[in-house]
Every structure is written in C-alpha cells, then in structure tokens.
Sequence to fold (723 residues):
Amino acid sequence: MEQPQAWVPTDPRARPSRDQVVKGLKGVDEGGPELVQLLTPEGERVPDERFDRHVADVTVEELKALYRDLVLVRRADREGNALQRQGELGIWVPLLGQEAAQVGSGRALRPTDMAFPSYREHGVAWCRGIDPTELLGIFRGTDHGGWDFVGRRFHPYTIVIGNQCLNAAGYAMGQRFESRVGDPDTGEATICYFGDGATSQGDVHEGFVWAAAYDAPLVFFCQNNQWAISVPLDRQTRVPLYQRARGYGFPGVRVDGNDVLACLAVTRWALEECRTGNGPVLVEAFTYRMDSHTTSDDATRYRLADEVELWKLKDPIERVRVHLSRRHGVEPDFFEGVDAEADELGERLRAFCRAMPQPDPERMFSEVYAAASPQVDAQRAEYLAYHASFVDEEG
Amino acid sequence: MATTTLARALTDGLRAAMERDPKVLVMGEDVGRLGGVFRITDGLQKDFGEQRVLDTPLSESGIIGAAVGLAVRGFRPVCEIQFDGFVFPGYDQIVSQLAKLRYRTQGAVPVPVVVRIPFGGGIGAVEHHSESPESLFAHVAGLKVVACSNPADAHWMIQQAIVSDDPVIFFEPKRRYWEKGEVDVGATTLESAFPLHASRVVRPGSTLTVATYGPMVKTCLDAATAAVEDGHDLEVIDLRSLSPLDLGPVAASVRRTGRLVVVAEAPAESSVTAEVAARVQQECFFSLEAPVLRVTGFDTPYPPSRLEDAYLPDLDRVLDAVDRALAW
Fold:
C-alpha cells in the first residue's frame, strides 16, 4: 500500500534555501519572483508593467528630494541611537535599513490621508511633516508623543503590537461612512503600519477581517524586516505574508522595501485602490532591520553577521545615490549639500534633546479624564503639596 | 411618567441619543437585524440604517478596536458586548487604547466610546454568561465605570454615558432587564437628570448603611423591607458610579449609622466592595461602631448555574451580615 506523502508547504521564502545554508546564511535576502522592484541595488531602473505608471511623473528633482528624505531620516535615526548611548534617551527604536519603505510609502500619502504607525515609523513621521525633535519625548520619557496627531493625521505611536490595525480599520470605516471614498482625486484613505511579528497577533487578523467586511479604504503596510526581536519570520508564517491577503479577499503585493521608488509606486497604487473604493490592500515591504530591535537589544545573540553584510549590499540609500549620479548626472555637490544638511539636523537634534526640561509633576495627573475625577484630583492636590514641602526644604 | 422595563428604558435611551447626535453609532454582535440577544437594540437598525447600527464581525477586540478608530474619526460608538464573560478578547483594546488615548495625547484625541456589558448572574446560564467583571475595569485609569439598577437610571444614564467625553464601561444588570419601573420622560431632561457619577440614597434609614449597585440594589431593598420586621431601619445607597466612586453620601450616612455593609455579586478580593470598605474606614474611622462587612460572590469562578443561588448574595445573606454588624 502506498504511503501518503507528508505535506510540505510550498516555498515560504521564510526558510533558507539549501544554497543559503551552504553559504552559512540563516536568513533570506531574496523576495521571490513576485517582488516589485523598480530600482535594483545597483541603481538600475528596471521596468515594471504594472507599477511604472504610478511613478511616471517623478522628476529627477523629486528623486533628489526622496534621496534627501532618506539621508535625513537615517541621520535622525542614528542620532537617536547615539543619544541613547550617551544616556540622553531611555531607549531608541532604530529604523536603520527601513528608510525606503517608510519614505516611499509616507511620500505617497496626501495630507487628507490618515496614518496609524507602530513605534518605528520615524521616517513616516518625517513625511507627515513631523520634526524629529517631536519624537524624542517618547524615548526620553517626557511624554507619550508630542506631535499634532489630528492636524498631521499621524496617530500616536502604538506600542502594543498590532492594536493599531483595528483602530485604523475603524478610522477607515469612518471615512467610508462619511462618503469620502470613491473619487480618485478627493477620496481619502488610511494607512496602517506594522511588522512581520505583528502578523501573528489576533488584532492584525481581525483588522483584515473588519477592513474587508466594510470595504474600508485601508492600506495595511507590513514592513517585513525579517526579525521580531530575536524570532525569525519562519516562526510567524508558512507562506509569504503578502499572500495572506488572498485569504481575506483583497490583494496583497510584495514590494522591495529597500527600493524607495517601488515603495512609492506600490503605495500610490494601493492608496488609489482604496480611494476609489477597492480597499483594503495589503502591501508587504520586504526589507531588513539592519540594527537591533531597540537599543536594549543585542542582535548579535541571535543572527549572523553574514546576513547583515548581505543586506548591506541592498542598502536603500546607496542605490538612489548611484542611480542619480550615473543615470541623471547629479553632481557631487548635491550629495555633499544633503550631508551637510544632515549634520545640521544631527546637531539640532542633540541640542534640542539635551535641553528638554524635566516634566512638571502635575503632568502626571493631566488629561486622565475629560471631566473631573474626584479621586485623581485629590491625589494631585495631595501629591503636589507633598512635593512642594520638599521644594521648600531645599529652597 | 411611563412604566417600562429596564430593557425598554435602555432601548429608548439609545434611540434618544441617536436622534440627538448623528455621530452616535451602535455596534456589536447581532445588534442590528436581531436587535441584540437581549433585544436592547430592537428596532434601531430599522430606523437608523446599517451604517449607524452595525452588525459587526464576531470579534470583540475588533468591536472595541474599531470603535476606538471610529472615535478618533469623530464618531461616538456605543458597543455592545453580548455577555460579561465575552469582553476579555476586547480587554486589551479597552486597557491599552480606549483608556489611555486621551492621556497619551494629552487631550488631543478623546475617545468617547461607551461599552455596554450585560452583567451578573441569576439567569441559569452556562459558563461565561453570569460574571461580574466590573472591578477589572474600575482599576484601570482612564475608564469610567457605571452600573444602572432600575429603568429610570437605565434610561438617563445610558444617554449621559454617550454624551460623556470619557470612555464609559456601562454595566447592565441582565437579570433585572425585565423589571418594571417608572421613567420620567416628560419633565426630566438630559441636563436635569440625576448626575451620572453620583451615588444616591434609594432608601433612607437610620440603623445601618448598605451600599450596593447593579442587580443587588433590588436585593438590598428587599432585605431592608424584611429588616423592618426586626425593627431595623436600613439606609440603602445605590453607588451607580463605580469609577469614580461617589462616597460622599456613603460617608455621610455612615457617620449617622456607624455601620456599613457593602453588597455585590462580584468576588470580594481586590474589588469595588474592597475599595468602598477601605475608603470608608479611612474617612469614617471614628464614626464606625463595627468593621465594614461585605456580602459578595465567593472568590471562585462562577459556579454551574444549579449552584448560583448559593453563590449569589441574597436577602438572607444580606440580613445575616446586618445582624453581625449590629451585634458587634
């Protein structure tokens, strides 16, 4: 009698191939045949029948602007890391390596669109017009977010993994209920950021279900950076993440997350789908977390340096620089100018951070409730009097 | 004045709130076409449409999480959780997002969401359908927690909760849904109705103070009636608001009576009744003639329903505690 063959999942692209094992690589650096790429790591523009039209209007000046975004976002990120090392910040959450995914998608948004970040989206914040100084309070411990959440349409950072996917689904449902969906020019959409680890959370699954059930104009933008702290992608999924969308009844696209032009094109397409009523859409930006999960983490404990070296060859900034200089003859003085600007930004961030005042103890009690709470009010009065008694003694 | 059931008073209150503000949405499992398993939202979808009364996916985290997003967008969602024991998949969203968004954003992003939860036992139900989880919410900063006990309060408190800019966890005593009472829908208005976050003396008395809420209010009133035969004149206070607590009337009462019994269906440990006891002894230390006693459910999971009559505080257990307090 013939034995049934053991079922083996088809190419999950989350496990190393034989060749990679032989090469000593644990992780994966190839996005597979369906990866959307417009700029190769070598800076070559490659055609894409489906997505080219979404960036056909991007001029050299705009490409230069994207390059500037990438460099400045990276500098802000590196300054954040350094400020933590110097003891100025309690923690920093680095985005190193994910600049293109964030800038490409962030620059696809319109002011009327809404964005729900997780906690690593400093590059998206930049694209929403939020100064990097406004991010520092969270990591220095002076506030839980210091930007204009409503005006910038950039929700507070969500730290509990995956929660924001449902909040974004609700917001996008609201856009539909208010009839802001249908017109490609005036339509609104929402984008929600989360990582590969988050896809194992129930809230992300429920977010997919809800957005689909209500045809919500919501782009689920998953930055697959291959690692959920120390846990590689193959512990989260058997199939490539973008393919999960099909099970929920909406399209999923995997884009080269280190290719800012492809991220811009794919996100523009996804937002247009949503604006015109064809949402939701899942975009998986295939990228890599070049640094540790946070400054409290040590990635050398769980992944090989070879893997990081391999991804360095796919750097999101370098390919744009090469493309600009080789294909468009952009002169070195442009790049030097951007570097100088980055230096200024770094200096400004450092100075701002060091001058950030200690929050007043009253801040602890503020805005717990909209209406007065006798309990909190009493504790505030009692503590402030207690606190003042020490100030008097010292003074 | 109109005589109506507590269930119907809630329906009418929801209807009034939806008529008052087009941003008010009702959402939950089976709340639309069916009108909810307890029929509290009966007829609302027919009158307000599917975009204001949402039959949602079967997903409690989704109900709360989406409501938060809708509130960020400017809506005022009223969520129904079908039964007390089903709220826990949504507990993360309630604690992590609903309770904290205002504080996180220092008032820039209010989330005026109401979460309605039918709670408590006494209906012979299977597991997860008879719980009293109110203390798990009262402990969370940023949430307001209330429990109605009669049709008039149900009618006005649900409307007050909906206009509140704070998130409100709204507990409904499911075994009292069919109790009738008078609701003043003529002279009383939303503005003139008894305040949401205030406790109320529902039976004045002089011998001993009983503080309670939700389904136990009726039980305690019945106990007070029975106690008259023994010559005891109990003062019964309906706490109504569990967070914030309004203990002024309780303290004032205890200063007169010197004795307090706190009654609730929920287990005793780390509970609303514990909070009341701790704060009243702090406030009224020199007025107390006896320790504050509590009559509660036991510190066990809710038992199989054939045992719930033993688990739930009843008239006799309340009177037993009254006797012990008086004999101190």
User: Anything to note?
Assistant: Chain A has a mean pLDDT of 93. Chain A has two domains: 18-354, 361-394. The CA atoms of residues 88 and 365 of chain A lie 25 Å apart.
